[in-house]
Amino acid sequence: MNLIDQKFADLKKTGQTALIPFLTVGDPDLDTTVELIVQVEAAGADILELGVPYSDPLADGPVIQRASERALASSVTIGTCLDVAQKARARGVRMPFVLFTYFNPVLQVGLETFFKKLGENGISGIIIPDLPIEESSEVAKLAQKAGIHLVPLVAPTSNERISRILANARGFIYCVSSLGVTGERSSFHEGVEQFIEQVKSQSSLPVAIGFGISSREQVERFSAICDGVVVGSAIVRKIEETIPLLQDSEQREQGLLQIREFVAQLKD
Amino acid sequence: MTQLPDKNGRFGDFGGRYVPETLMNALIELEEAYNQYSQEPDFQEEINYLLKQYSGRETPLFYAERLTEHLGGAKIYLKREDLNHTGAHKINNAIGQGILAKRMGKRKVIAETGAGQHGVATATVAALLGLECKVFMGEEDMKRQQLNVFRMKLLGAEVVPVLSGTRTLKDACNETLRYWVSNVHDTFYILGSATGPHPYPLMVRNFQRIIGDETRRQILEQEGRLPDLVVAAVGGGSNAIGMFYPFIEDTSVKLLGVEAAGHGVDTEYHAATMTKGTKGVFQGSMSYLLQDAFGQVLPAHSISAGLDYPGIGPEHSYLKDIERARYAPITDQEALDALQLLSKTEGIIPALESAHAVAQVVKEAPLLPSDHIIVICLSGRGDKDVESIMGYLGGAES
Known about the structure:
Chain A is of the alpha/beta class. Chain A has helices spanning 3-13, 30-42, 62-73, 78-90, 103-109, 111-120, 137-146, 162-167, 192-202, 216-223, 233-246, 252-264, and strands spanning 18-24, 48-51, 97-100, 125-127, 149-150, 153-154, 173-176, 207-210, 228-231. In chain A, 48% of the residues lie in helices and 13% in strands.
């Protein structure tokens, strides 16, 4: 059984909502990312999104753009991102990993090789934000064959596309909270609750929400109606603020602790 | 062949629509609106009226006699897109998309710009049609092209500095798309090149094909036959595809795109997407692309800001793969030399972009017989570049 399915099944038994943090791999460096994954799990994360840094992150706001730039400055590739996943496993991390990557880096690895590598490195799901259903049939086929869930994004503007998107969805459905790019925000798309209800009524898969969710209050608000809540930019910003500590050998532990506490307070 | 792109926006393997789901409905709405309005006669009439009475079309097809004599080979004609209002072919597309925006009821338009030509064209059309206009421009380019920044402001547009990534055209495109995602309900994105997700490559080509349509008619009038070779500079490739498209089925007409080789295609500083690029997905479509082995997009370089772009329109990639068009690289220096040559032989200072096309003809015309006919798309005038050219030439007469 795919780890994502297992996780949502387990959470359902106890009526919990999955906390799904996002980290940009290699920000500020690969070793720290491995350490951060360990801390984030200890803080209560249920599933982790591992962001592959990309030169042209169209769907991302300034916080994740800056994280990508930092990671790319130290030559992080999609391959080293997979190494990080494996190293985290070796450190005893059990939660499912979902790789968040733009399409071009995947394409350059070669689709067949890529999905083979995902399986070998303990990745359970993949989100490709610039691959709409019209372009995804081959990827979806290879993902399914490899037992990897291709998690689709659904937007408040998807309207009649929703049923087509959900028809081939696997793992969970990622609802985009509002129009725009990733990044913290204080308000969400008008009618976001109805949007989520609309998605839930059309699929039996778990429904997660993301884009802009940054505080405990927001996590609580959406936990009431969703099966999972993704927190990305807020954590990446916290890491950015903590870089001076993380890169100082004497203060590193303190920096890691601060991030762990930040993630922990998002959850009950 | 003229039936491409297909309904998925594909030119063979190239094109498509690789964008976040948040943009899909906007693109579908745009495609439907374009398909609908482009069938309505008064839509094309309105565009034609402005192209004629506002932009000054048709533009002349000029026999460059002294350049021809100087090179001592094929006869060379210049399609004078530089004589358009705002000084380049960019206005053809900005008028088309501006009118489409208005018909769709969008009162706000946004655009990306590199050198500022498309930004100026969009700001111009926005002023003409009474639309609110924001132009996204890399901070680096804003420094390099201060006059165009001021022009856009004079025209009533807001110029938004882009501070992400390379702070040039590539990132201005990203930022415009990001802004559009948040404002799709009331904002129309006037994309400046034959790039991006479907339906932009189709739409931009169709708004630019007037270049080739006029050229075809004019050369038949003047020479009684079609040219042997048609040459145009390619960055994203909008003037080139506009020039090439009406000739695609005329197999006797060779098509030649000229890209920027910067310091040379074997250095790190070039924008030679066709010579050095590989297939990839960038800014919404599959095409050739300058990228590293891991799929990260590489920064481009060219003396010409309009060619300083690591991607290229998908239809060009298709024309290259089916060998209908050929693409050649020209260095910064070769372009500068050609710019001076054209200035002195014909009294026409071309834009640095267009000078690349001239430079390739300087290489090829002498090798062709005198009864051969070459048409160069002179996509823009050099006024915008005079200051930077002065910098390169040290102000010296050479």
